[in-house]
Amino acid sequence: MHRIAPFLQAFGDQIAGSELFIRQLRLRMNAAAQRDHFVFEFGDARRNGHGVHVSSPSMKSVTQHSDADFPAAGVESLRQQLLVATLSLNRQMKLHQLSTLAAIADTGSIRAAARSLGLSPAAVTKAVRELEADMQAPLVIRSASGVTFTEFGRTLVVHARVVLGQLQRAQAEIDALRGAAAGKLSIGVTPWVALTFLPPTVQRFRQRMPEVQLEFFEGLLAVVQPRLRDGSLDFSIGRPPPASPQSEFHNVPLFSTHSAVVARRDHPKAGCRTLLELEDAEWVLNWDPASRESISDNLFRKRGMRVPHTIHLAHSLAVVLGLLAHTDMLSIFPWPLVEVTLAKENLWALPLRETVDETIVSITSRRGAPTSPAAACFLDCLREVIDEAARSQEPEQRRLFHSIELLL
Fold first, then answer.
1. What CATH number labels 183-407?
2. How far apart are CA 41 and CA 48, in angstroms?
3. Which of 51, 73, 99, 191 could bond 317 through an S-S bridge, CB–CB 3.0 to 4.6 Å?
4. Does domain 95-174 have CATH number 1.10.3720.10?
């Protein structure tokens, strides 16, 4: 029998007088060749006693835990804290196997993964082979040049990262409830928000949760979307992914703003008044490849223009700024970014008659993923900073809010 000890969070639907009433949460987990059905029953003094009753058809025995079992694990009480349950399954992948698979994906080889995990290469190889046996599918292809993933392996890596990320968040939430707030908060941030609202938000957040480590990524869809999907990013503040009824992401709109075409001040086309005059220009856009068609439609085709042959894509604002300063390329910036970069970077917003591309900035997270206390605190700080800036009489803040529309 394989054993797994995951952290499973169970929340009561109703809390009254600090007593957790009976609630049943049904968790369906895919085992290697079966589906396991778990039932959690929570009790209180007015019902059937404190504790939790855990059962599953695939478990060899039903387990019963009481409040007395939990202080040793650092959990004060089922009434006040999240449940940490240990389950024994007949067939199930192990967490160390998932950690090993994710480490191989992150480092690119068995040896590098072994070093990062503090294991021997033989132990890493064994974990992968056991996982392949459990999944009944080849996951990696080993060669002299390193390791590549099969289609099965690539799929499992995504889910492994989600599982491991959720377990880390569960531990962080439990630590926070115990008064030992720590851990890491990973955030994607669009450049103009990073240059305006982010610094005071971070200062405020650090005062409230000084033990939490912050990690930031530039908030481009090509960067943040895979990380949101695999759970390695808590949320992003930037352009939302394309909407669909079955979207895997949840979006909360923050701002709406228009954009401008920008170039260096002495650019040959700096005085152009229409987009048609820019038809033969060379462009560099700080966008992701998935947005290229929508940009082409909104900016060129709907105005009866041909799409320029040369549109370069850059996944870094620094790269775009460098190219604009030293070439004849043009770019498109949201107006708030124009406000904070024109003077510093010797750039110029072309005085076009047309309105250029409306942009929405949203808080985007993975649909169904719980918001950690650190993430909730950070977003509270962000909203406070935005609210205070919106009421500010400082000229710089007034110019900024003249270029955006609040959607909160």
1. 3.40.190.290
2. 10
3. 191
4. no
Give the amino acid at 6: P
Distances (CA, A) of 222 to 185, 323, 327: 20, 20, 25
Torsion angle, alpha carbons of 194, 200, 203, 206, to 10:
-70
Quick check: 157 and 227 in contact, CB under 8 A?
Answer: no
Can you read off the two tokens belonging to residue 14?
Answer: 């109703």
Compute the distance between CA of residue 357 and CA of residue 337 in angstroms, rounded to an integer: 14
CA–CA distances in Å: residue 231 to residues 23, 98, 234, 273: 27, 14, 7, 45
Q: Which tens digits make up the pLDDT trace of 227-284?
A: 888 788 999 999 887 766 567 889 999 999 988 999 999 999 999 999 888 888 899 9
Q: Are 250 and 367 in contact (CB under 8 A)?
A: yes
Q: How far apart are CA 53 and CA 83, in angstroms?
A: 11
Please give the structure tokens belonging to residue 86: 């240990």
* CA distance linking residue 357 with residue 204, whole number of Å: 33
What percent of the chain is predicted at pLDDT more than 90? 25
Give CA–CA dist 362/375, Å, rounded.
15
Look at the block and give the residue holding tokens 């992968």: 128
Q: Are strands 63-65 and 51-55 parallel, antiparallel or unpaired?
A: antiparallel
When mean pLDDT is compared over 44-53, 170-179, 347-356, the highest value belongs to 347-356
A 10 A CB-CB count for 2 gives 15
Give the tokens for residue 352.
């076009």
Domain ranges of the chain: 4-66, 95-174, 183-407
Indicate the SS3 state at residue 94: coil
